[in-house]
Design a protein that fits this description.
The chain is an alpha+beta fold. It is 49% helix and 14% strand. The chain contains 11 helices and 14 strands. A 4-stranded antiparallel β-sheet has the order 3-4-7-6, covered by helices on one side. A 4-stranded mixed β-sheet has the order 5-8-9-10, with helices on one face. A two-stranded antiparallel ribbon has the order 1-2. α2 runs antiparallel to α3, α7 packs across α8 and α8 packs antiparallel against α9.
């Protein structure tokens, strides 16, 4: 039989107490950190799940951060686009509200001076940055989107700006005789109107007539020619209408009316003593009408065409000098300033993409050379680039024609991109980001709850465990203290004499 003394019991109690202290320390740490373990190994079989959950939470944090950054970019971009639309409206309104034709010392109207200021504002908006990135540079976000207004209008010393390009285009469109590349001829009772076959000046598009005993047809042949045959019975009020297409694609028509008056009025021809003399009189009237259009509508259309060609990619210019005998438009990259300095892609929207969710990606790229922006630039810049002479009797009519064309162009053309189309693309991206943010938040909450179940602790349960251990510890320490006070003397009978 073995007998265990108080010393052995005390030692056992002390070991138990040390174990309780360790458990209390662990529970206190869990209560303080809210985590069941400080390392993945401490989670045992749940470690792999915890790793996966944390990885997914880190990915969501990345998506959320990207969504916030892109959201800021989109808000700034929408603001810039909204201002561009406002400028377009303001220019259009200024064209409607302008007063009498009055030129300053530079040969421009106050509306044109305002257009120059608007051009500066447009270019500044197109060079908007978010951080170090240029919004309208496509994939080349590290470089400005557009050149300065001065460079665009006046060139850089070695390459032509828009002002010179407009002048060269006008020479090409007017031709050697300033008749818009048209010529007339009469042979007996037959009148012909011909273009020179080049892409410049007036293009013949058709003819109609109500000539008594006569006819009109064309254009046919090369170069294109309209033919009018006059009969002997031409009557007062008979008309011939020549349809013309101008360099910017707009149209004009010349309607000549037969009259017995001599001299005839504007756009009238006097009926002669025979068909041949009537044909000659019609030629005179037609030459006058063509010359008038060549000094009014043609310069305006030519300037619009030049601006469109300047802002195209690549720029297109007449193959001169000399320009008045130019025969074709050619690539002008070598002789024309580069107004757009960003990256170039046929799909601008795709030049900037971002993943904002596990399966959600947004595209939000933009380029300053997109059609809607280019159109705005061309039409505002053409106002800023053209000048007129106060001594030119045709200046006001030509200016009015230019303003009318610009106003029409700024109102937008069916089937072409508008700034609102770009805004809509960005709005779609913003909607996707909003949806992604909601999904990310919901997913994040779910994953955090799952992770809490793996890594977290139950505060109530820990409190109960700590209380139980504290009670056990108190009891153990009480026993140990009593045992420590015991000795053999406590069990010996008193010694008697």
């Amino acid at each position: 039989m073995s007998i265990t003394g108080p010393g052995s019991v005390t030692a056992t109690n002390l070991l138990a107490q040390n174990n309780i202290f360790n458990q209390l320390d662990t529970l206190s740490q869990e209560l303080g950190t809210g985590e069941a373990a400080t390392t993945y190994s401490g989670l045992g079989s749940q470690a792999g799940l915890a790793l996966q959950l944390n990885a997914q939470l880190e990915a969501i944090d990345g998506y959320s951060s990207t969504a916030t950054t892109v959201g800021t970019t989109l808000s700034i971009a929408q603001s810039a686009l909204s201002q561009l639309s406002s400028i377009s409206d303001s220019v259009s309104e200024s064209l409607s509200d302008q007063g009498d034709f009055s030129l300053d010392s530079t040969g421009q109207t106050s509306t044109q001076e305002s257009a120059a200021s608007y051009l500066d504002e447009i270019l500044s908006l197109l060079n908007t940055q978010v951080g170090s990135s240029y919004l309208f540079s496509g994939s080349a976000t590290g470089q400005p989107s557009v050149a300065s207004a001065d460079t665009i209008l006046n060139g850089n010393g070695t390459q032509n700006g828009l002002v010179q390009v407009i002048q060269n285009q006008l020479q090409a469109d007017e031709g050697v005789n300033d008749t818009g590349r048209l010529s007339t001829a009469v042979s007996g009772s037959q009148l012909t109107l011909s273009s020179d076959g080049s892409p410049f000046g007036f293009q013949l598009s058709g003819v109609t007539s109500s000539l008594t005993g006569g006819s009109a047809s064309g254009p046919t042949g090369s170069p294109p020619t309209i033919t009018v045959n006059l009969g002997a019975d031409t009557a007062a009020g008979d008309t011939v209408t020549f349809d013309l297409t101008l360099p910017d694609g707009s149209t004009q028509n010349i309607t000549l009316t037969a009259t017995t008056a001599s001299p005839p009025g504007t756009n009238q021809f006097t009926i002669g003593t025979d068909a041949a003399s009537t044909a000659t009189n019609m030629q005179t009237a037609l030459n006058t009408a063509v010359s008038s259009l060549a000094q009014t509508a043609l310069p305006a259309a030519s300037a619009i065409a030049a601006a469109n060609n300047f802002f195209s990619d690549p720029p297109q210019v007449p193959n001169g000098p000399p320009y008045d005998t130019a025969t074709a438009l050619v690539d002008g990259s070598a002789t024309t300033v580069q107004w757009y300095t960003g990256g170039n892609s046929s799909t601008p929207l795709q030049t900037a993409t971002a993943q904002v969710g596990s399966s959600l990606t947004v595209a939000y790229g933009m380029q300053a050379n997109e059609p809607a922006i280019t159109s705005l630039l061309a039409n505002v810049a053409v106002l800023a680039a053209t000048t007129y002479s106060a001594s030119d009797s045709n200046a006001e009519a030509s200016y009015d024609a230019l303003c009318q064309s610009v106003q029409t162009n700024l109102s937008g053309q069916s089937g072409t991109q508008s700034i609102s189309d770009i805004e809509a693309n960005l709005a779609n991206a913003q909607t996707t980001i909003t949806n992604a943010t909601a999904i990310n938040t919901q997913t994040q909450t779910t994953l955090q709850d799952m992770l809490q179940g793996v890594e977290g602790v139950n505060d109530n349960q820990i409190g109960e465990d700590i209380l139980t251990l504290q009670n056990d510890l108190s009891a153990s320490m009480s026993v140990t203290a009593r045992l420590a006070q015991m000795s053999l003397v406590n069990y010996l009978a008193p010694v008697t004499g």
